[in-house]
Amino acid sequence: MLASAKSSGAMLRDSFGNLVLVMGDRVMSILRPCAAELVDVITGLEVVIQGGWQVESVETGCMEAVRLVNGEVADYFAKEGVLEEKVRVLLALACANGVGYNHVPRSANKVAYLISN
To answer: What are the percentages of helix, strand and coil residues in the chain, rounded to 5?
Structure first.
């Protein structure tokens, strides 16, 4: 598989909806989209934990990643297995009330899409 450019974007808002932090990155990658999404979520959760914040909601446009992390797919041989487990651990550390990992259709996630491009 040839390396290709991947981009990602994330934004963090406080409990009032105020923008706290915006992140965007473009890297050369051989990761599948699901794995790339999980890496981005890990990066975002690590920033949240280092900042001393707590998460109220984690949203992504990648349904496959959501299903893996939420245990809806029992694919024990998925290449993303290690990443999936790390997301679960970080969610447990960053979330006060056991917040889930949720899918948001790309059409509703325009800001993150603009940040990543």
So the answer is: 45, 25, 30
In this structure, what token pair is assigned to residue 4?
Answer: 């290709």
Alpha helices in the chain (DSSP H): 33-51, 63-69, 81-94, 110-116
pLDDT tier, 2 (very low <50, low <70, confident <90, very high otherwise): very low
The C-alpha angle 101, 29, 83, rounded to 5 degrees, equals: 35
| pLDDT tens-digit readout, 56-76 | 778 888 888 888 888 887 665
Q: In the predicted model, is pLDDT for residue 12 greater than 60?
A: yes
What residue has token string 């059409």? 107
d(CA 96, CA 22): 22
Paired tokens of 62: 């990648």
Average pLDDT (86-112) is 74
- How far is the CA of 35 from the CAs of 17, 97, 98, in angstroms? 28, 26, 23
Residue pair 33/68 in contact (Cβ under 8 Å)? The answer is no
